[in-house]
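Researcher: Quick sanity check before group meeting.
Model: Go ahead. Protein one:
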Amino acid sequence: MRWKKWLGLSVVFLFVIGGLTVSYFLDKISLPGNPDDIAEIRAKTSAQTESGFYQPAQQALVVQETNPLNNLYFGDLHVHTNISVDAYLFGNRFDMDTAYRVAKSESIELRTGERVVLSRPLDFVALTDHAESFGYRLACSQPDLDADARKACGTVDSPSFLNFLAIRAQNQKRPPVRDLTVYGNDPDKERKFAAMAWQSVKDAADRHYQPGVFTSFAGYEYSPPLPDRGKHHRNIIFRSMETPEYAIANPDSSSTIDLWQQLEATCTDDCEFLTIPHNPNKSWGLAFASHTIDGEAYTEADWRLRERSEPLVEMFQNKGNSECSVAFGAGDEECGFEQFFPPCAEDSDTSCIYPTSMARDGLQKGLALQEEIGINPLRFGFIGATDTHNSNPGNTEEWNFRGVVTFGSSPAARRLNSFDPGGLKITNPGGLAAVWAPENTREALFDAMRRKEVYATSGTRIRLRAFAGFDLPENIADTADIQAAYTGGVPMGASLPGEPGTLAFFVWATRDPDSAPLAKLQVIKGWIEEGKRQELVYDIACGGSELDPATNRCQPNAARVDLQTCNWTEQPGAPELRVRWQDPDYRPDQNAFYYLRAVENPTCRWSTYDSLRLGRPPPENVPATSTEMAWSSPIWINAQ
């Protein structure tokens, strides 16, 4: 691929972090350079209408007692604060403590004048600032800077800041190097400040940790660059405050293989970690490819290392949906939800979808590897997240979306006007991680993530449980007996050995009371037959319509949204859907995966809410409404 060759050239290019390429955004927008500019922006915010459409009431945190059958907890594992220099550059001055308070539903006002507040607190958060910038601003606050360091530090507050942490993309045998100007070109000093910054991340997490009430994880983001704003990043989450001394960044490790190896070498004794890739849809095919970012082929040992390190994939966030593409496999219409990249025409393309870009592609690749090398290293669960750069974790409600980069996407006029059509299309508030765990502690939540009893949402708080087994009671959809579900089957994220009998699923979804009723439940099945990937989508329960037995699809239920107020119809639709479903085509000799998808009736998209704020029609080049979703982690069948 031409862009892979680009990675091997000895070229200095702008450091790409957090979903933003600074030069790209500076081409598209003008950042405020003085107080008068900011005052003008705030005046535009004051002119917005913040009423006339549905806004949920504020709710207090509900503390749940320990439950051996597991409680449901919602959180965000991908959040940036002002210690990420890209977030700081675009106007975020909110620190880690503020981010934690926002997660607990404290209201804040962005520098643009727009107000952010969660209608419901989160249960857990990981602040994942870019490790590549750890120590930078801390070093710049020191009084003994030399002239070069003062000049470099001065650029961080300037809209002309185009040279932050330039990384030299060298050949695969020479890892990228840091720009050490702000550290007086002293690598030991850089290490000192990076370690201090990492310790401050852990200290902030400890200040806000309330076992049983609110969980804060130590975490950070590893952010190697790709051309055209591509993403091959990982969030690293730790089970406790026992962590490596340093946050391993891209200059320390040129590929994820290096990252995992160094984490295993330095995260020892009581230290435990997991990594979570984000934005497979923008990985230009690297997400589930058989080679690393520098073109090195995975070995079997590398696949096993990945299996140990990476149990989850961030499938939905503010830069789009990474579930599937209608261009590959069987596809289905829901694959188009918040996903607007076209298929790649050839293997040199960027800004497009490869056959190894999406989560469903990765699940299929795992089945192929299982047949090839005897293990499935891509047996991963799903989560959602925001990737916000405004210190506002969990701010996923469409009506209250304020963008993700302060001056880059706030207020409403800028969100709707400043992006090119592609940016407007793929930008959304992001999603949430939903975790089934016995209690709200670091250990319990981390262990649930490790066993993949988790799911992703597109931002609403749909409750979703899924089990599969050969001994699920016939009446379990009526009784909703969770103990029987665990006894007679396995939950989402687990595996079953293929055996003769009837493979049944128990799926239970409950609507988010602050969003629209449920339209349907679906099962997505994948397998490989005669060397070719196969997929089927079954509608297994319908909200307010009938199931067509000939097509296994729900009939349209005629739900509507009033685009003048964004009110939705409560009927038709279902507040709850419970079903016991049997796979009519189950084969015990066939490796397969199944995951569940709950789909809501339509509600207004964020761009429509912003149009109401500005008194204009919704944009014509994006949908006026969306059908929010939840996706369970898969359940796998291992052929016998």
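Researcher: Fine. The other one?
Model: Protein two, sequence then structure:
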Amino acid sequence: TKTKRGQVLFANDPHIGFSQPAVWYEAHLNAPGLNLYGFWLAGFPFPQLVHTEHHAIGLTMFENDDIDFFREKPNPENPGQYEYKGNWIDFSERKETIRVKDGQDVGLTVKSTIHGPIVNDGVKIISEEAPLSMWWVYTKHPNRTLEASYQLCRATTMAEVKAAVQLIHAPGLNVMYGDRDGNVAWWAAARLPVRPAHVNSKLILDGSTGNDDPLGYYNFSENPQAENPGWGYVYSANNQSVSPSGIRHPGYYLPEDRARRIVTLLEEKDDWTAEDFKTMLLDVTSENVPEVVASLVPAIDLSGLSVTEIDALEMLQGWPGNFDLEASAPTIYNKFIYHLSYLIFHDELGPELFAVFNGNHLMKRSLQPLLANPTSVWWDDVTTTDRVESRSDIIQTAFHQSIAELSAQLGQNPQEWAWSKVHTLEHNHSFSAVPSLKKYFNVGPFPVSGNTETINNMLNHWQPDGTYEVFGGPSTRRIVDFADVAGNSWSILPTGQSGCVMSDHYQDQAEMFARGAFRPMLLDEEDIKKQAVSSFVFKVKK
């Protein structure tokens, strides 16, 4: 009901770390009873992203919390035992051998409890002396992902797709669906644990009593989902979602930014076309960023600012939050946010934990509400013992540092601090670890628009040197128009279809991807023959 041609429009651009060769292998399979177009992971027999003349499937990560950590209580008289529900139980052990090329084998003893393996020695930042065990949904059930993928390809009804989705237990996925019959749906695919009411799954739990153990699993009907909702669309952007009965399952969800922007755009009109979807997938505006700027600017004392600082501040104040290549405000904003986060968190966390925190979803979700909260204890610099820093103190210091560093990096004129100069994408081949091979195997770099948490989600870290090297983003962009599946469906790969550096198709899509171009996904045999530039035929001798 929201499309110009009265049929379902479907789009998907799952975000994955960029690499060369690219993540997906794209192919069209046609055989008696089979006509599908899909994207394969290496070594996996069925496509995870797929469309047929009947339906389309897309994926994003659900980001649910399917791991719990338990602090175990060792027996002080027998280090080979731990306490569970009043009894001393022997740790289980198994031997693993890691074979090392041109080196000695490495022996590893994996020690486990009833909850799972002990992870202290495997995770460097764990400072606990007590053994910590890891309970993980993924290891508790048979893996039926292969079966689910097969059924998703062969399904002919929405009910069959929904049944296949329920075979997936972990990691959690948002499965997006649309079909030629006018159906749209979204299901969160995962086995979701029922935890005791007192348990906070983000904290380390008590393994000795059994009181913190998961109680079982919710029925699939309690997974977040929507089928043909009255407002006419479904979406997922790794954001927090709610089950049909209102349960908010714990997780490591992304902030609302992309989801909010998607809803804003979809609500604006009821005549969507495939061309409109191309524009939406390339959208680089954040509605949250201007709100962040508006909360920070009043805290800056204007009286002592330099001409360059005043110019930069005016750019931020008038900025609608678009991360376009020619804009300078994104460069100022990202530098400013880095220094703010550093001044807020580094004094408490230290360098190692700050680096971890700076690269995870909790930082993204925490920052906007924290920046708007003048009473937070985080504003104080705990390394200064003679004073308590205020929110204004930290914001003022961060702004001065940011403009000084940008002036040294890019010159005194903020008009010349274009986002294109600092925000780049290079597709790294594993051979680039050898410096002399890097220029032959890497693809790029390209200046790219967008930022972390815009719809065109170009993932980067805030970092001190003022450059933002994109490490992940849309692993493909796909659009399927059920008004003309064979003739009006579109995709793009980040680099090319071939992993062979000598092939013409090694990087022939890289420049197109960087500038936001698409190419058709052809299903019609005559169209394919007309546009083919080469063919490769296998003939089997009987």
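Researcher: One line on it for the slide.
Model: The chain has a mean pLDDT of 95.
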